[in-house]
């Protein structure tokens, strides 16, 4: 009877393989760390995306306000008398109500000015700037226009017939308009929240727009010099 004896001899290289390999625990730890890194990277990417969207939205709102101010500055600055109205007629007693060249109060102003021809308009128009009820108990800043031959509306009548209009800014909380100049019966020039002198244009017009406290938009006070105004 032949008996074979096997001795547990170490396999060459086995010790080196165990030392160079990973145990199950080490593999699990590596997977957990990889998952944590992935979560952090994903969260960072989402935060970066939200920050980019917020910055882009804020920039868009700032550019919108700048564009609106540029429009108002150019139109108010070019306010004038009707081309058919002579200097003598401007100094004469006021004519029929509604034919003034410029009239305004603290939240509404109407005046005569030219509109650019490249907008398909051109010529003299009566332009009105005011606040109109919007959504969520707020107002919108609005501009309206119609041919200059038509008379002015009553400041508070709210009529919209024959007007073309567009919204400049949505969800504003308040609008304040002030006028600088020497009006009829006034001794000196000064600021007023009403302009009612039909024979003169104000020297300056100042517009302030307020937003709610949680609205990130800010309106730099806009002061416009009326080029056609005379002392």
Major sheet summary line: 5 strands, antiparallel
Unreliable stretches covering 5 or more consecutive residues: 86-98
The span between the termini is 136 Å
What's the shape? elongated
Mean pLDDT: 76
Tally of DSSP helical segments: 3
- Classify the helix fraction into a percent range: 25-40%
Number of strands: 9
Q: How are strands sequenced across the largest beta sheet?
A: 1-2-3-4-5
CA radius of gyration: 36 Å
Please trace the helix and strand order, writing H or E for each element: HHHEEEEEEEEE
Beta content? 25-35%
For the record, the count of structural domains works out to: 1
Please identify the structural class as seen in this structure. alpha+beta
Structural write-up:
The chain has 231 residues and is of the alpha+beta class. The protein has helices spanning 14-20, 24-77, 87-91, and strands spanning 102-105, 108-114, 124-133, 139-147, 164-172, 174-181, 190-192, 204-210, 222-225. The protein has one domain (59-225). It contains three helices and nine strands. A hairpin with a 5-residue loop joins β3 (124-133) and β4. The longest helix has 54 residues, at 24-77. The radius of gyration is 36 Å and the shape is elongated. The termini are far apart. Residues 86-98 have low confidence and may be disordered.
């Amino acid at each position: 009877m032949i008996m074979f004896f096997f001795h547990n001899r170490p396999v060459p290289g086995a010790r080196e393989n165990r030392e160079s390999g990973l145990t199950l625990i080490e593999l699990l730890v590596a997977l957990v760390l990889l998952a944590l890194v992935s979560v952090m990277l994903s969260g960072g990417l989402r935060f970066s995306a939200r920050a980019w969207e917020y910055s882009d939205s804020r920039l868009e709102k700032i550019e919108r306000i700048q564009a609106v101010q540029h429009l108002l500055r150019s139109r108010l600055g070019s306010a004038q008398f009707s081309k058919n109205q002579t200097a003598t007629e401007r100094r004469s007693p006021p004519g029929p109500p509604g034919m003034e060249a410029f009239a305004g109060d603290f939240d509404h102003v109407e005046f005569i000015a030219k509109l650019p021809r490249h907008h398909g308009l051109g010529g003299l128009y009566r332009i009105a700037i005011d606040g109109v009820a919007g959504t969520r108990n707020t107002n919108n800043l609005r501009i309206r226009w119609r041919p200059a031959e038509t008379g002015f509306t009553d400041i508070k009548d709210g009529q919209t017939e024959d007007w073309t209009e567009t919204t400049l800014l949505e969800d504003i909380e308040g609008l304040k308009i002030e006028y600088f100049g020497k009006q009829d019966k006034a001794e000196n020039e000064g600021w007023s929240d009403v302009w009612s002198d039909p024979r003169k244009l104000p020297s300056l017009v100042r517009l302030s727009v307020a937003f709610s406290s949680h609205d990130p938009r800010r309106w730099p006070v806009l002061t416009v010099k009326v080029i056609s105004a005379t002392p």
